[in-house]
Write a structure and sequence with these properties.
The complex is a heterodimer of chains A (734) and B (827). Chain A has 734 residues and is α+β, with helices and mostly antiparallel strands. In chain A, 31% of the residues lie in helices and 22% in strands. In chain A, α7 runs parallel beside α9 (319-335) and α9 (319-335) runs parallel beside α10 (352-360). In chain B, strands 4, 6, 10, 18, 20, 22 and 23 form a seven-stranded mixed sheet that branches. Chain B has a seven-stranded mixed sheet with strand order 14-13-12-11-15-16-17, sandwiched between helices. In chain B, strands 3-5-21-19 form a four-stranded antiparallel sheet, with helices on one face. In chain B, α20 (732-739) packs across α21 (760-775). Chain B is globular and about 75 Å long. The chains are: A alpha+beta (734), B alpha/beta (827). The A-B interface holds A 166, 168, 171, 176-184, 187, 189, 196-199, 241, 246-248 and B 290, 292-294, 300-310, 313, 315, 317-321, 336, 339, 343.
Chain lengths: 734, 827
């Protein structure tokens, strides 16, 4: 038998699943005592180059699609989840013990089907572009957008909406005069009105009786969404001629930015033309919405945008209204399977707090940067269109994730970029965790790293023990539109053994996956933090369980709002609840590598003690990549030793972290903020704020002239935290 | 002059006796079926039609308009000088030149009476309306100098402290020139030091003749920033062209014609200095159910179209690039105008909006913070869902009933409110209509009428036949001099007061006439009432001041001064009246009356007032004579014939084939006409074309069928219509000369212009026609009428001395009726 470590790794590689417990306590009572619920991180579209999709339809149990117990002679199979007996379909007539379909082979616990039915729909990319930008920013954005046209699949439909004080929907099919439909940025219009105004609905009154209405071919009738190959010249020119919002902005005012209406028009347009088709609305903003529905801040510069302080004091005038507005839009968009990306590039906040739901509920990206004219934005945006080994885009649309459980388990909820589909069923738990009350979730936008946290409840009663060797099964069925426009279904079925907690507590203990549990609990924490007050969440977390991770998690921007703007918090949380386990761990506890002349690079403790004058540190927090040159190194560098032939080794030392950083940058989405700093540099704060403050200005002298760098903070260090913890743990349990 | 003669001329219209003096005087005229019935037409007491006239009343014996016109022409050989107070100018039909010597030229101001009664009692007794028809921006003939522009510098024009009248020849300088006494309110005001000048021995300022405001009747002041909206000097105005591109508009060819024409027309935007380019900016919008704005910024390679579908809440989608200077954006504009007809060539949209179109123009002007004019080219009743949506309410059954007035009232209050907003911004609206059916002219016309704009109507527009008329109208409308964002105030000397105003404008209070736009063709009729006694010594003074923004964006004040005499004897009043002006007033009064009263009541009121005027004269001024004699004051002897024309007009007494839109159109159109136009409109000019040798025009003949000869060719002109009537037995030679065909039957009656033939007759006639067209504000389409052709019915409608198809009385009949009314009043 392999170790649990290997088993976990193998499971993750094959099925994209990491469970908190890999042996399940067999009764509800025991499960509750374990504090960490039976739960898993599930990456539905985990890249499996070795997994060929099968070209036939899945066989469905008349109640569910299952891994079957097959009686080859009787040509029937029994469903694992409901024990329904089903006959084989005619296509399985040739089935035998030696000629099995793929889904019956043990190595295919995850299998992908290509659905042949139905027409394929092209992908849709709708750019929604803020024109209230500085000239330089707009130019950069225009170039990025023009560049992106070449990355789109040629048959993809593309559309363009620009906005400032007004909202313009550009018609792309016309020759000669560039045509656009204009909406007032202050008026909230419903979907029907928008479609009428765009001329997308044929007035019923005009239809002559007796003559059937011509079938509406959305692709040909919608002048606003056109195949890239047909309009790329046109659109390139259009983007090229795009001007900054021409309305004058008086002194002391913000430009009037109608983001709310622009999004409403975008959602309305897609809703009317391509419901239930994979589509990305890509919103590019350079500032907060300042007018109309969804406005986040007024146009008076003297009133700053809301801060956490304002929110706590209930001083954020527009917060509730705007949030409600964007939530409604997000839900509409989710219903239609369209995902919304937000690319916000500005030095100040842009209203991500209010708008985050747009991406969170629809599986869209949020990217935050300082300017569109930065490589952070440019490369991140480019990476949106990255392709996998087969040359397909690493994105999928309109996903529906269904979870089926065997009868001892029920589904409590999910946390991730999804919305509930309100599918009630026998396996829905009453005990909600995250987005619960359903067995199906819609994930409008998916990519290979999109990871959901799923929480389960063991419902087996204590007095009805499960026979020895019993297995519980969970099946994840993900239907989605592949980026090559095929509809696909990926089915992952896993099973774990039940164990009696009283007699087999050690076994259960050893099956605990600390990393998964930490991330899953952190997700719960973030989920709560979004809806509850910060300190309450921390208290809850402290009560639940305390491990090393929790020290960093407590200090992380996911739970702490201090030093972060509401937008930043929203941004961090957005990414935290969708990344896979590895990335999530980096987010919770940043990785610190140390480079020196004394040996190969080594991971070091995330502690102020690791900051030494003769070392170069590379810290990866997921959002930031910091290269920190110690005091001596920095002086050497300044002196230019690296340029001297005799100090070749120093040059190599300087180069090593750069190369490693580059490697990380290659794959990370979104692009992290790349910081190259040194001892005493202003940007060193990125590092200093993360490390464990084992040395602070308070205890510096007590530690003497030791190594390391003191951190100016009043936060407690890990040492103090642990001391408290021990005291607490002891007093609680005994 | 006739009015200087003390003796009234008596007009004995023959031995008219009771019972035979009215009713059927002559036998029925050919072509007019049915007996004439008097009461039906002017509501007199029911009267059985008299027996066939025992004695035919000789039409030559009753006052002839032609005679009066020709007499006036004959005696007006000298230039008319305006210096003498109370002197009536020559008639509008006479060609004369004017020398401004302290009163406004009759081209700017004409009064109904140049000798006003001193007291209200006298005025009431006589019933003569006291009114002035003012055409503030009238164009003067080339030999007369346009008003001088006076600049009083930083402090602005010198004005009376109390009544704010502007410096004018009626101000009396006293105390050696240090102060002046206002001629209007008698208040004494200090002369500002910079304006001081010594007086000569007669008490006149030494610089009197150097300063237009001290010696002339009409002049302009440069206005200062105090006279501007928001105390900010105005921006140059803008013209916005809004073109209907619905199915009908495209199909009729209108869109194509407009777009083609605009390309050249943009070079003729109004300007003050003919050398320089116009500063007027232009913008373009097309629309059907939605509006398309165009960005024609010069830096663009192609125009951009911005569609606004949210017509319920109109806004301007762009600022920069909508209103542009023609020269900077010429290529983009031309590209746009080339593409518009193509873009909508295949349109199937039939519904249009109208309210949002005006709103769009208004919002654009607001955004640009300037005044301007909208040119709207529209085809149909706006039934698309939008503010200002109208329903078809044409109901011919209501004609002639008490509810008829509702047809002249607009649907809802939307357009009234919109008009008010337009006026506040200085947004003048000109409407070019191309209807194929009912469009509710009444309602569509509300905004143009209230903003000082014009309405042009081309029913059943066809490119081939109507293009010329439309293009000429459009060219003139674009090019003509005009002022924007204007306010007119009429000040009068103590004793009388301007109480009522008629014309195309908006009034938010009782004194200020607000005109978003005021062009050279628009006249305003002002009625005066006594509020005190006037004195014979000082006479009655009036000063009309119009504050406006010129087409170059300069804020100016145009001042017209007018002084008339006052009299304590009614005879003096009756000697100094001007019938043409009275008719102008009466027609406007009556045409406004139909808004609130049944047309019959309106007609009765007119007849009644006219009878009272004449009865008062008979009673107080005429020498005693037999009751059977009708005695008319010399200068009012045409009042009955002209009044009859007003009563018979399509507005007050429509024939069955006259549409409601046509009536509403005329009603609105006439409200801003000056005296010249109303005269020819109500009494058309009918010229025989037998002898065209001399350089002068042939003498007109009376507008009656019996004056037409079968062997003659006649031209009839109303200012709106132009007919060429060809008798059935015209000599072949004449036909050959005119039409290039010797045969009457081969004349193509559908021609709209005469063939260009190289003979003196043809040349001269075409010259006459083009002269007529040049004189009138609207281009007249030529209509050839062959005698006894079906089109003759239309032509006959304008033979106003005859009975009309709608039941209007003939001149003779009406005169008899009037006589009867007068005698009733006297007895």
């Amino acid at each position: 038998m392999t170790t649990y470590q290997e088993f976990i790794q193998q499971n993750e590689d094959r099925d994209g699943v990491r469970f908190s417990w890999n042996l399940w306590p067999s009764s509800r009572l025991e499960a509750t005592r374990l504090v960490v619920p039976v739960s898993c991180l599930f990456t539905p579209l985990k890249e499996r180059p070795d997994l060929p999709p099968v070209q036939y339809e899945p066989v469905l149990c008349s109640r569910a699609n299952c891994k079957a117990q097959v009686d080859f002679r009787a040509k029937i199979w029994a469903c694992n989840f409901c024990f329904q007996r089903n006959p084989f379909p005619p296509s399985y007539a040739g089935i035998s013990e030696v000629n099995q379909p793929a889904e019956l082979m043990p190595q295919f616990s995850t299998i992908e089907y290509i659905v042949q039915r139905g027409p394929t729909a092209p992908l849709i990319f709708l750019y929604v572009v803020d024109t209230c930008l500085e000239e330089e920013d707009l130019q950069a954005l225009k170039e990025s957008l023009q560049m992106s046209l070449s990355l789109l699949p040629p048959n993809a439909l593309v559309g363009l909406i620009t906005f400032g004080r007004m909202v313009q929907v550009h018609e792309l099919s016309c020759e000669g005069i560039a045509k656009s439909y204009v909406f007032r940025g202050t008026k909230d219009l419903n979907s029907k009105q928008i479609q009428e105004m765009l001329g997308l609905t044929k007035p019923t009154a005009q239809g002559q009786p007796g003559r059937p209405a011509a079938p509406q071919d959305a692709a040909s009738t919608c002048r606003f969404l056109q195949p890239v190959h047909r309009v790329d010249m046109n659109l390139t020119d259009l983007l090229g001629e795009l001007q900054r919002d021409p309305w004058p902005v008086p002194q002391g005012k913000r430009p009037l930015r109608s983001t709310g209406v622009a999004l409403s028009v975008a959602v309305g347009l897609l809703e009317g033309t391509f419901p239930n088709t994979g589509a990305r609305v890509m919103l590019f903003i350079g500032g907060p919405p300042t007018q109309g529905p969804g406005m986040v801040v007024g146009d008076e510069l003297k009133t700053p945008i809301r801060s956490w302080h304002d929110i706590q004091k209930d001083n954020a005038r527009h917060l509730k209204k705007a949030t409600k507005y964007y939530e409604a839009l997000a839900n509409r968009s989710a219903v239609n399977g369209h995902s919304i990306d937000i690319y916000a590039c500005a030095l100040d906040q842009t209203g991500l707090l209010e708008m985050k739901c747009l991406s969170n509920l629809t599986g869209g990206h949020i990217v935050m940067g300082d300017s569109f004219n930065t490589s952070l934005f440019k490369q991140t945006f480019q990476r949106v269109f990255s392709k996998d080994l087969n040359g397909d885009f690493r994105m999928a649309f309109g996903g529906v994730l269904e979870v089926k459980t065997s009868r001892e388990l029920k589904v409590s909820g999910a946390i991730g970029p999804c919305v509930s589909l309100n599918a009630k069923g026998s396996c829905v738990s009453e005990n909600e965790m995250g987005i619960g009350g359903t067995t199906q979730w819609k994930v409008c936008g998916l990519n290979p790293s999109t990871t959901l946290g799923l929480y389960f409840e063991v419902v087996n009663q204590h007095n009805a023990p499960i026979p020895q060797g019993g297995r519980g099964a969970i099946q994840f069925v993900t239907q989605y539109q592949h980026s090559n426009t095929q509809r696909r279904i990926r089915v992952t079925t896993i099973a774990r053994n039940w164990a009696d907690a009283q007699s087999q507590i050690q076994l259960i203990e050893s099956s605990f996956d600390q990393e998964a549990a930490a991330v899953l609990m952190a997700r719960l924490g973030v989920f709560r933090a979004e809806s509850e007050e910060g300190p309450d969440v921390l208290r809850w977390l402290d009560r639940q369980l305390i491990r090393l991770f929790m020290f960093h998690l407590r200090r992380s921007p996911f739970l702490q709002v201090f030093n972060n703007s509401p937008d930043e918090s929203s941004y961090y949380r957005h990414h935290f609840v969708r990344q896979d386990l590895t990335q999530s761990l980096i987010m919770i506890q940043p990785i610190l590598y140390s480079y020196s002349f004394y040996g190969p690079p080594e991971p070091v403790l995330l502690d102020s003690g690791s900051i030494l004058p003769d070392k170069i540190l590379l810290m990866d927090t997921f959002f930031q990549l910091v290269i920190y040159h110690g005091e001596t190194i920095a002086q050497w560098r300044k002196a230019g030793y690296q340029d001297m032939a005799e100090y070749e080794n120093f040059k190599q030392l300087l180069q090593a972290p750069l190369d490693d950083a580059q490697e990380i940058l290659q794959t990370r989405f979104p692009m992290p903020r790349y910081v190259d700093t040194e001892h005493g540099g202003s940007q060193a704060r990125f590092l200093l704020s993360k490390v464990n403050p084992s040395q602070t200005h308070n205890n510096l002298y007590a530690w003497g002239q030791e190594t390391g760098a003191p951190i100016l903070t009043d936060d407690v260090s890990l040492q103090v935290f642990m001391d408290h913890l021990k005291k607490l743990a002891v007093s609680t349990f005994f | 002059m006739a009015n200087s003669s003390k003796k009234s001329i008596l007009h004995d219209i023959g031995p008219l006796r009771e019972k035979t003096s009215y009713g059927q005087v002559r036998g029925p005229q050919p072509g007019y079926p049915g007996p004439y019935s008097g009461p039906q037409n002017y509501g007199g007491p029911a009267q059985a039609p008299g027996p066939a006239a025992q004695k035919r009343l000789d039409p030559d014996a009753i006052p002839s308009p032609i005679q009066v016109i020709e007499d006036d022409k004959a005696k007006s050989t000298e230039p008319f000088t305006t210096g003498v107070r109370g002197q009536a100018p020559p008639l509008v039909t006479t060609t004369f030149s004017v020398r401004d010597q302290g009163n406004a030229s009759p081209r700017f101001v004409r009064c109904t009476a140049y000798n006003m009664p001193c007291t209200a009692d006298m005025a009431k007794q006589s019933q003569v309306p006291l009114a002035a028809v003012i055409k503030p921006l009238a164009i003067l003939p080339p030999d007369e100098t346009p008003p001088y522009v006076v600049d009083h510098g930083e402090p602005g024009p010198i004005r009376c402290n109390r009544c704010k009248a502007y410096m004018c020849p009626y101000m009396q300088f006293i105390e050696g020139g240090r102060r002046f006494q206002c001629g209007f309110c008698s208040c004494v005001t200090e002369v500002p030091p910079h304006y001081f000048q010594h007086l000569d021995h007669t008490g006149k300022r030494v610089d009197c003749y150097d300063r237009p405001e001290l010696s002339l009747g009409s002049y302009e002041f440069l206005a200062t920033v105090d006279y501007c909206k928001n105390n900010k000097l105005p921006q140059p105005p803008a013209f916005i062209f809004l073109i209907d591109v619905s199915y009908n508009a495209v199909k009729s060819g209108m869109v194509n014609i407009v777009c083609q024409e605009l390309k050249t027309l943009l070079d003729y935007l109004p300007r003050e200095n003919p050398e320089a380019d116009s500063v007027v900016r232009v913008g373009f919008v097309t629309y059907n159910k939605v509006l398309h704005f165009y960005n024609v910024k010069g830096s663009l390679a192609q125009p951009q179209m911005l569609v606004v579908s949210d017509v319920s809440d109109m806004f301007v989608p762009l600022l920069d690039g909508f209103l542009v200077n023609v020269n900077e954006s010429r290529q983009v504009i031309e590209s746009l105008l080339d593409q518009i007809p193509d873009m909508f060539a295949d349109t199937r949209e039939t519904e249009t909006v109208f309210g949002p179109v005006i709103q769009a123009g208004l919002e654009a002007l607001k955004a640009a913070d300037c005044a301007g004019k909208l040119f709207i080219f529209h085809t149909s009743l706006p039934i698309a869902e939008a503010p200002g949506k109208l329903k078809n309410r044409e109901d011919k059954k209501l004609v002639g009933t008490d509810k008829e007035k509702s047809l002249f009232q607009p649907q809802g209050s939307f357009y009234n409110t919109l008009a008010k907003d337009c006026v506040a911004q200085g947004c003048c609206v000109d409407l070019f209509l191309f209807p194929n059916q009912y469009v509710d002219m009444t309602t569509l016309g509300v905004v143009p009428v209230s903003t000082g704009g014009s309405v042009y109507k081309y029913t059943y527009f066809q490119a081939a036949t109507d293009q010329e008329r439309f293009l000429n109208d459009l060219r003139r409308d674009v090019e003509k001099p005009m002022g924007f964002d204007a306010v007119m105030r009429v000040r009068t000397s103590t004793g009388i007061r301007a109480t009522d105003f008629f014309g195309s404008f908006f009034m938010s209070n009782t004194t200020d006439v607000e005109l978003a736009g005021l062009d050279c063709d628009k006249a305003i009729t002002v009625e005066f009432k006594h509020d005190d006694k006037l004195s014979e010594d000082t006479g009655a003074l009036m000063q009309c001041a119009v504050l406006y923004t010129s087409c170059s964006g300069q804020r100016r004040l145009r001042v017209h001064n007018m002084a008339v005499n006052c009299c304590s004897q009614l005879a003096d009043l009756y000697r100094n009246c001007e019938t043409d002006t009275i008719i102008n007033y009466f027609s406007k009064f009556a045409f406004r009356g139909v808004l609130n009263h049944p047309t019959k009541t309106v007609r009765d009121t007119l007849v009644n007032q006219c009878a009272q005027i004449l009865a008062c004269y008979r009673k107080n001024c005429a020498s005693p004579s037999s009751a059977g004699q009708l005695i008319l004051p010399e200068c009012m002897k045409l009042l009955p014939v002209y009044l009859n024309c007003v009563l018979k007009s399509d507005v007050l007494l429509p024939a069955a084939d006259v549409s409601l839109d046509d009536r509403a159109y005329l009603r609105q159109f006439i409200s801003s006409m000056d005296v010249t136009e109303t005269h020819v409109f109500f009494y058309p000019q009918l010229l025989p074309l037998t002898n065209l040798d001399s350089s002068s025009l042939p003498v007109a003949i009376r507008a009656s069928e019996e004056r037409l000869s079968k062997g003659g060719v006649y031209i009839l002109e109303t200012g709106l219509h132009l007919f060429l009537w060809v008798g059935a037995s015209v000599q072949q030679e004449l036909l050959q000369n005119l039409f290039g065909t010797p045969s009457f039957s081969q004349i193509d009656a559908s021609m709209t212009s005469l063939p260009v033939l190289d003979n003196p007759f043809s040349k001269r006639l075409r010259e006459i026609i083009s002269n007529f067209r040049a004189q009138r504000p609207r281009y007249m389409k030529l209509m050839v009428v062959k005698q006894e052709d079906h089109s003759e019915l239309i032509f006959r409608h304008f033979l106003v001395e005859d009975k009309s198809a709608s039941g209007g009385a003939s001149y003779v009949d009406f005169l008899c009726h009037m006589h009867k009314e007068i005698r009733q009043l006297l007895s």
